[in-house]
Amino acid sequence: MGHTKVAALLSVVLVGISNLLGGWSPAMTTLLVIVALDIVSGFVRAGVQKRLSSKESWAGGLRKFMIFVMVALAAQVDGVTGAAPLLRNAVVIFYCVSESLSVIENVVAAGLPVPDVIRDALAQLSARKAPKPPGE
Predict the structure, then answer these.
(1) Each residue's pLDDT tens digit, 17-31
(2) Using CB atoms within 10 A of its CB, is residue 42 exposed (0-12), middle (13-18) or buried (19+)?
């Protein structure tokens, strides 16, 4: 296959993915960058802690893929309802915040200094995520 055919095929695939996700926007670019930062910071964290695992990496990659499945689902719901990309943008913003927190957790776990206010906020969020013992 020639270079031109590969480029054309890649263009068609990328346009299809963009349409499935409800079009491309600065928010989508931000989400993609933050997801990439989370992946890189996760690998650095695992390397520093000497806990790099292909099984965990694979599972993490699947979770990242599922973020974009949720974005596509929200975009399709927006399309059916005829609404502006309100739901899709809400989902994108939610995952931008969630992935940003994950990046900060990775940075802290890798041993880098983080301002106390961020460290305290992470501790509060972690306490909320911890499963509650039965009877509480």
Answers:
(1) 877 788 888 999 999
(2) buried
Domain that holds residue 28: 21-129
Q: How far is CA 56 from CA 44, 50, 90, 98, 131, in A?
A: 14, 13, 28, 19, 21
Residue 16 lies in a domain: no
The torsion angles phi and psi of 39, rounded to 5 degrees, stand at -60, -50
Residue type, 110: A
Joined tokens for residue 119: 């460290």
Band of the pLDDT at 34, cuts 50, 70, 90?
very high
Does residue 94 fall inside a structural domain?
A: yes
Of 94, 101, 109, residue with least CA distance to 128: 101
Q: Is 3 a domain residue?
A: no
Tally of structural domains, the chain:
1
